[in-house]
Amino acid sequence: MGGIVDLRGEKIPELLHRIVMNLGEVRVGDYIDFIIDADPQKVLAHVEGLGERYEVRNVGDYTVIRIWKEREIETEVVEEEEFEINENTNVGKLIERYPEAIDILAGYGFTPLKNPILRKTLARTITLGRAKMLRGLSDGEFSELLEKLRAIARKS
Question: Which residues contact 41 (CB under 8 A, 6 or more apart)?
């Protein structure tokens, strides 16, 4: 069974949030067609990170991404011995380890991370470097963000 969700006009972070929220509502084996007018390459980079099967069709001025939910989303996090905060740091693991990072990230425009479902799903598929690109942070803003995140790690 499939559904259709029209996401035209949505900015990338909100669009990704809505994709994850909608996928959370369907049964394994079902699919949803998402209609977007945003850059499909930016969206697909995150869709691929979800690990679900998808298909893309261009229809006029917009794109339809059909995503099949192939599994329930796993929420278990494996602890790592060393944890560095840099552009390759997984946002979900960062938040799991340092919950106060949510407020810092939200201060830089990553407000969808305040949603618990997004933190359990999409946040686990994105790195800080990719988040920088999506939000359009300058190198200076990104360095400032990293320093604030490292400061909370040093306090722990």
Answer: none
φ/ψ of 11, rounded to 5, equals -80, 155
What does the domain layout of the chain look like in residue ranges?
2-68, 91-155
d(CA 114, CA 99): 10
84-to-59, 68, 87, 103 alpha-carbon distances in Å: 43, 34, 9, 19
Of 31, 17, 150, which is closest to residue 87 (Cα–Cα)? 150
pLDDT, tens digit, 9 for 90 and up, residues 24-50: 788 888 999 999 999 888 888 777 767
* Contact in structure between 35 and 8 (CB atoms under 8 Å): yes
**Joined tokens for residue 100:** 């106060």
Question: Please, what is the end-to-end C-alpha distance for the chain in angstroms?
Answer: 47
Please state, in angstroms and rounded to a whole number, the distance separating the CA atoms of residues 135 and 124. 17
CA proximity to 114, closest of 13, 44, 8: 13
Q: What CATH number should be reported for the domain whose range is 2-68?
A: 3.30.110.40
- For β-strands 53-59 and 31-36, DSSP reports them as unpaired
pLDDT digits (tens, 9 = 90+) for 40-81: 888 887 777 676 889 999 999 999 999 998 876 543 434 444
